[in-house]
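Letters spell out the chain; the tokens describe the backbone. To illustrate:

===
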Amino acid sequence: MAPSLLERLKTYLFPDGETAARAIPGIRTIQSGDIRSSEKSAWKSFSAEEIVDATRTTFWWDAKIGSGLASVGVTDAYEGGHGRLAVRKGPVPLVDMTGPHIDQGELQRYLSYVNYCPSMIVNNPFLDFAAVGLTTLRIRDRQDATGSFVDLDIADDGRPIVIRAVRPMTVGKRVIPTEWSAVGTNEHVWNGIRLCRHLEASWHPPDGRFVYVRIDVLSQSVIATTPISLAACP
């Protein structure tokens, strides 16, 4: 079933064929959006730049959340099997999180990008796709040591419907494995591939689902693969 589902997905995401997708080794996007930490928290606007490497499991997201004196900088990143979440106010570091839970969460974020940077499907040799149902593909990284994965539900025409996973959610000082999902909309064909320009992700805690981030892609450009070092992240 895996080849059939995967070919269906490729046919939908690569309307101009795999050659067009292979010509996109990575993307850089400029984004705007809103984010909140819980269902009862106020939404905060953000602007961001993101680099996603489609040839290896690496991404870097750098955002400014809020405005004026209350704004903070946030960096999410994954590279070389390790993730990092850093928060800063101006040049002053406030939070710098690493470790197995961060590794897992940031890897799952990358794996969920198949409808945002679909060229990773054919360019990243470390990704593994396995059918776990008639319409669901499980996506892993063969080099991952945490056993992490995401599940992608696919429509009959190959369209990605929703990506699901159990991800580590930080609640106060605790890290709780929590159901999570992401969807992409506002599709368009760009450089021969079909990608989404609006992304939303939700947590599904026991007391009910809530959307915690909404992202609009304002622009995207092709980048050549370049080293991204977590040590160089702000």
Remarks:
- The CA atoms of residues 100 and 146 lie 7 Å apart.
